[in-house]
Design a protein that fits this description.
- This protein has helices at 2-10, 16-28, 32-48, 56-65, 71-85, 88-115, 130-139, 141-153, 160-163, 187-193, 197-206, 212-223, 227-235, 239-251, 255-276, 300-303, 306-318, 322-335, 340-352, 356-369, 374-386, 390-403, 408-420, 424-437, 445-454, 458-468, 475-488, 491-504, 509-518, 520-525, 532-544.
- It is mostly helical and 545 residues long.
- Helix 17 (306-318) runs antiparallel to helix 18 and helix 19 (340-352) runs antiparallel to helix 20 (356-369).
- The radius of gyration is 32 Å and the shape is elongated.
- It starts with a helix and ends with a helix.
């Protein structure tokens, strides 16, 4: 409790003596629980006051701690826990927006599968019902649960959303209870469980998955369940379940696993307090922004080795934090010899940051080291296309085609480049190729229909636009069909399709007129009289009035 109190003080007012005290507890405590909590608190306090860490005494203290064999590895463990906490909101959104809604949709089907239509169901046989697993697989929930399980294995906080609503008990009105380690002698636990203290309490105490605050939430929620239902739930945990849990918990008793687990659970307790406490506005939230210990120069010797930077960089990269990943990869680039995969990832980060020019530089370096990489060629082509250089993009797509001649996506992109280079006849051939290679796909229909139109092949264009209109047509599809009928001289039908284009775009007439005028040159080239174009617009406006 002292450690947490000192940390809360550090979030408001920096006092080097507090940091020193936490470091002393870390060094001298024989308890892994106390030692790792103190280190988490010290590093978090140092990070929140990083602009003031200039005192030589603190630097000397940390230099002395480096002589401990566990210091650098412990700092890395805590750093990774802070990084993982950043992923909590993403996991939360996934649970709230994907998993829970899908499970609610399945409730009627689940009830029907369980009861067999007669209102009766045997819960014990649920796992043995193959239709239940089939239901989960078809809904996609099974895949989401596997993904969440993988996140949990990686240390992700998958229980935040589950227990967030269980922090409204009066127990959590007192700040001290957010940091209270869970133990069976706690009066709240005794009162909540009564005679079932030993059975349920030991089960919760042994759980390696829940942080202390969530254990209290679970007990308090369980105390509100009627005794009969509580006993039924308890009966599901037979001796085999308990033995498996004990074995899992024992595996965390290894020195490195135990230290990692303590840090993980303490950071989760801290995160819940700063995010869920009813008076959280009274405190400075260290998790309001990403916690990046790399910004602490005093910890550079502990965190800038290749292994740590690689783990951190990959974590950011896989989870889509591309700005952070780029900065870590940039540091790695200064340490490691030239590496094509590192340049590829740096380029990808820049591309995701909408900086294709900078991405291009890294992709070119990757190409120098591995000229045969199709992935690099694709990215180079995409960057050149984004930068408005279809000729250069075409070169790379042609190189890819030489290696993968049956790729419909490559054929489509070559067609797009040729169309931008005003070579519609050649583009048309590639669109036909893409359509032939992938008969089940509709991707080639729209560019093929448009390309045939501007090439003057109205019959071919009409054939494909008729197909397009069966494939969820957009406002642009109706616009182009109007152009086609206007070029054929069927003004009445053209106006009909133009009105459909406006309706499909929520009645936005101004947007239609802008798009219509943007295609003026194509219409003139298709043989439409220039004097007719404004009259068509007037006719549309009149018909809509």
């Amino acid at each position: 409790m002292l450690i947490s109190a000192v940390l809360l003080g550090l979030t408001h007012y920096y006092d080097e003596r507090r940091v020193m005290m936490l470091l002393d507890i870390y060094e001298k405590s024989q308890s892994v629980n106390l030692s790792m909590r103190a280190l988490c608190a010290a590093l978090l306090g140092m990070y929140m006051n990083r602009s003031r860490l200039w005192d030589r005494k603190l630097r000397q203290r940390i230099d002395a701690l480096r002589e401990l064999t566990s210091w650098s590895s412990d700092v890395k463990l805590v750093f990774l826990q802070f990084i993982r906490s950043r992923d909590t909101e993403r996991i939360n959104r996934k649970m709230q927006e994907e998993v829970f809604p899908e499970m609610l949709k399945l409730r009627p089907d689940i009830a029907r599968k369980i009861s067999g239509g007669n209102g009766l169901g045997d819960i014990a046989n649920l796992e043995e019902n193959p239709e239940w697993q089939e239901l989960l697989d078809k809904s996609g929930i099974a895949d989401k649960i596997k993904e969440l399980s993988k996140m949990q294995e990686d240390g992700g906080d998958v229980f935040m959303s589950t227990f967030a609503n269980l922090k409204s008990f009066p127990f959590f009105s007192d700040v001290v209870n957010w940091f209270m380690p869970f133990h069976l002698d706690n009066l709240t636990v005794k009162n909540a469980l009564g005679s079932e203290l030993s059975a349920i309490g030991n089960l919760v105490l042994s759980s390696p998955f829940l942080c202390n605050g969530d254990k209290y939430s679970f007990i308090l929620a369980l105390s509100s369940v009627p005794a009969m239902q509580r006993r039924m739930m308890l009966s599901q945990f037979d001796a085999q379940n308990l033995n498996e849990l004990e074995l899992r918990n024992a595996s965390l008793g290894l020195p490195s696993g135990e230290r990692d687990n303590v840090a993980n659970k303490y950071v989760q307790d801290l995160y819940r307090f700063f995010k869920l406490y009813r008076r959280k506005g009274d405190f400075n939230d260290p998790f309001s922004r990403p916690i990046n210990l790399l910004q602490l120069a005093v910890l550079a010797p502990d965190l800038t080795d290749v292994d740590t930077l690689s783990v951190v960089g990959e974590f950011y990269f896989k989870r889509g934090y591309y700005d952070d990943a780029y900065h870590v990869f940039e540091i790695l680039g200064e340490i490691l010899p030239p590496d094509s995969q590192l340049y590829q990832k740096m380029g990808y980060c820049c591309q995701k940051a909408k900086n294709p020019a900078k991405a291009l530089k890294y992709y070119e370096q990757a190409e120098l080291l591995n000229a045969d990489s199709l992935w690099t060629m694709r990215r180079l082509a995409a960057c050149y296309k984004l930068m408005g250089n279809p000729a250069k993009a075409l070169e790379y797509f042609k190189r890819i085609e030489a290696k993968k001649s049956d790729d419909p996506g490559v054929a489509l992109n070559i067609g797009h480049c040729l169309l931008e280079l005003d070579r519609p006849e050649e583009a048309l051939n590639y669109y036909f190729k893409a359509d032939f290679i992938d008969e089940k796909s509709t991707r080639a229909w729209r560019p093929l229909a448009w390309c045939a139109f501007i090439s003057g092949d109205m019959a071919q264009s009409e054939e494909y636009y008729n197909k397009v209109l069966t494939d969820n047509p957009s406002s642009g599809d109706y616009l182009n069909m109007g152009h086609l009928n206007l070029a054929k001289g069927d003004i009445r039908e053209a106006i009909n399709f133009y009105n459909l284009a406006i309706d499909a775009n929520n009645g936005d007439v101004e947007s239609f007129i802008n798009n219509y005028n943007a295609d003026r040159n194509h219409l003139l080239k298709a043989g439409v009289e220039g004097s007719l174009l404004p009259l068509v617009v007037d006719a549309i406006l009149y018909s809509r009035d």
